[in-house]
Amino acid sequence: MHRHLERKTAIIYGAGGAIGGAVSRAFAAEGATVFLTGPDLSAVHIVAREIIEAGGLAETAQVDALDERAVEGHAANVARKTGAIDISFNVISIPYVQGKPLVEQRVDDFVMSVMQHARTQFLTATTAARYMIARRRSGAILMMTAPPDRTGRPLVGAFGPACAAIEAFARTLAAEIGPHGVRVVCLRSSGSQGETDGARNSGSCAKVAGISDEQAQTRLKETATLRRFTTLDEVARVAVFVASDDARAMTGTSVNVSSGPRR
Question: What's the pTM value of the predicted model, to 2 decimals?
Fold first, then answer.
């Protein structure tokens, strides 16, 4: 049976989270050797154990994806063990203030979140790109964003601008490293109901709006063309495709995995 990521090496930052875990399991099921990282290894170990029990290959490491030396050191270790880094996917969770109007937020609350999103994506993407370029192998660098990057939504704080910054960075990086065969693609997802930080954080917005969490979730679904949330499995399947050679002509763009947000 053909597996789309056979003999590929993938690093997943934030592998202990809902999306990171789903993508890690999907990558491993498609033949990739996955190197799972996170600041807290308890959740990462659970994902790794599930992968190994299913017959996949996984290793774990405690890595702060905001720390330059930690990211570079871990990538160097992976490259020494496997000879290459084929896929890099950063889906770490960055705290941000939401449920509070921008005009009532402190400038540091806004700026810090945007800076941390930009910092971690820059560190992990450029580190992986250097190894991919040096070994003259094709590679895929994936990033995660969300619909507020393009659609104005109230009370999401710095999240929308941060996602927009990630997508702009991804396009610029793709233009620079594309001639070396390295691709950069963002996955834009609305999050899965009750399964991701974004979905769970909708409660703070609901409180400000004076509605229940259930009503807030219903409103979010109504903003999607398909009138439903994207599932974790759907995000993971798209991530596999984007990371595979089947998507080798796709770069410098964002893949909409948000059930089609209405504009």
Answer: 0.88
